[in-house]
Design a protein that fits this description.
- Helix 5 packs antiparallel against helix 6.
- It contains six helices and seven strands, in the order E-H-E-H-E-H-E-H-E-H-E-E-H.
- Strands 1-3-2-4-7-6-5 form a seven-stranded mixed sheet, sandwiched between helices.
- It is 40% helix and 16% strand.
- Strand 2, helix 2 and strand 3 form a beta-alpha-beta unit.
- With 224 residues, it is of the alpha/beta class.
């Protein structure tokens, strides 16, 4: 449901209170992916039906979790945006937020509620240091988890960073009918996750998530 307007670019100074300037753990979030730490439907008889519901184009919200970067100096966010745009999708907003539990949770919650956002991708704050809080902030918003994303991301990352992949807590799930993906903060990790997994699968997952949301709403109305 991407709109035709140019992408929002909210940085720390003029953001809403929940969009503060942020923290990306530039030296510990990616375990070697550059600088930092680095749908579950397997029923073959349903596969064709689900592809019929794929979205032709998606609206993307990109959230960079960092205290040291700005939207003018955000190679990880740039990599995610470029991967979607190269596939014909639209980045409708880019946000910067420091590594703060409440702020990260609030901004992701706000984006999944937007009518023009079909997928949210965060980068940063997925490591194991005390100030890595993205996973903790996003996890409570997820009504459904997509464990296969983290498993596949770590498998692909192993070729780059070897056993340090054990410190990578990439996460994905569905919140309010919108797929949400949490990537590490390095440019290499963001590029890998976006190009190899997220962009190819988002039209399918976003279509399924909205379809499922509609079924749940229909059931609820029928019960009244």
């Amino acid at each position: 449901m991407a709109d035709s307007q140019s992408p929002d670019t909210t940085d720390a100074d003029d953001a809403e209170p929940t969009d503060g300037d942020g923290e990306q753990n530039d030296h510990h979030d990616d375990h070697g992916h550059g600088q930092d730490d680095h749908g579950d439907n397997h029923e073959h008889h349903d596969h064709g039906h689900h592809h019929a519901g794929d979205l032709a184009a998606v609206g993307v919200g990109v959230v960079t979790v960092s205290s040291s970067r700005s939207l003018d100096d955000d190679p990880s966010g740039d990599a995610i945006a470029a991967a979607f745009e190269a596939d014909g999708h639209e980045v409708v907003t880019r946000e910067l937020v420091r590594d703060d539990y409440d702020r990260v949770q609030a901004i992701v919650n706000r984006l999944v509620g937007r009518d023009d956002v079909n997928v949210v991708v965060t980068t940063g704050g997925t490591g194991v240091t005390p100030d890595d809080r993205t996973v903790e902030a996003v996890r409570p918003l997820l009504e459904k988890r997509l464990p296969g994303f983290g498993e596949l991301f770590r498998r692909l990352s192993y070729d780059d960073i070897g056993t340090r992949v054990v410190g990578t807590r990439a996460l994905a799930g569905v919140a309010d009918g919108v797929p949400v993906f949490c990537l590490p903060g390095s440019e290499n990790a963001a590029t890998l996750g976006a190009e190899e997994i997220i962009v190819p699968e988002t039209p399918h997952l976003a279509g399924l998530a909205k379809e499922d949301e509609g079924e749940v709403e229909g059931e609820a109305e029928g019960e009244e």
